[in-house]
Design goal:
Elements: E1 9-15, E2 21-33, E3 37-42, E4 46-49, E5 54-56, E6 61-66, E7 71-78, E8 81-89, E9 93-95, E10 98-110, E11 116-119, H1 121-131, H2 135-154, H3 161-175
Parallel strand pairs: 1-10
Antiparallel strand pairs: 1-2, 2-3, 2-4, 3-6, 4-5, 6-7, 7-8, 8-10, 9-10, 10-11
Organism: Siminovitchia terrae
Binding site for Mg(2+) 1: 87, 103, 107
EC number: 3.6.1.15, 3.6.1.6
Length: 176
């Protein structure tokens, strides 16, 4: 797999299990890239939905993608604290200037006090039947929800305040 160059902008492309595009973030600055990890930053980034509708993100965000994990983490930096939006999805691949993954509907929203809520369970069950998610994918995703919850409770990785401070500072250096 190719590795993007640190300091360059890449697209983030989210797909559904059936291969259809789900959502595209126009640009994210690569802050760190290895064979297994991409950390990026963005702010006021145009996002295009599958139906062509567009919107712009409202705050700076640090994005964490791992090639071995079935979730990714978006830390949104707001005046009243850091909010996290965690997508349950396939490990990413980097191809032709874009980070790509399959979004599997389930999401975990984490608040600044580290309380969290599992979202979109109904959507997951509906799409699981509609798109025929295999049982093995269902099992992997449920295991990864548990792993994600452990990370949140342990303040591991992106859930540590120091992690966000370090990577947001790095992001800001690219803006100057």
């Amino acid at each position: 797999m190719d590795i993007p160059t640190e300091g360059t902008n890449i697209q983030i492309q989210s797909y559904k299990h059936n291969g259809n595009i789900h959502r595209i973030w126009a640009e994210t600055k690569v802050l760190k890239a290895t064979n297994h990890l991409i950390i990026g930053g963005n702010d006021r980034t145009p996002v295009t939905e599958s139906d062509g509708r567009t919107w712009i993100t409202r705050e700076p965000a640090i994005c964490y993608f791992h090639a071995d994990l079935w979730f990714n983490i978006i830390a949104m930096i707001r005046d009243n604290g850091i909010y996290y939006y965690c997508n349950l999805g396939s490990p990413y691949v980097y191809d032709k200037g874009a980070l790509k993954y399959i979004d599997y509907d389930l999401d975990v929203k984490v608040f600044p006090d580290m309380t969290f809520t599992l979202l979109d369970e109904d959507e997951y069950e509906q799409n699981r039947k509609l798109m025929g998610y295999p049982d093995v994918i269902d099992h992997i995703l449920k295991k990864n929800v548990d792993k994600l919850v452990r990370w949140i409770r342990q303040r591991k990785g992106p859930f540590s305040a120091e992690f966000i401070d370090i990577w947001y500072d790095r992001y800001l250096t690219y803006l100057n």
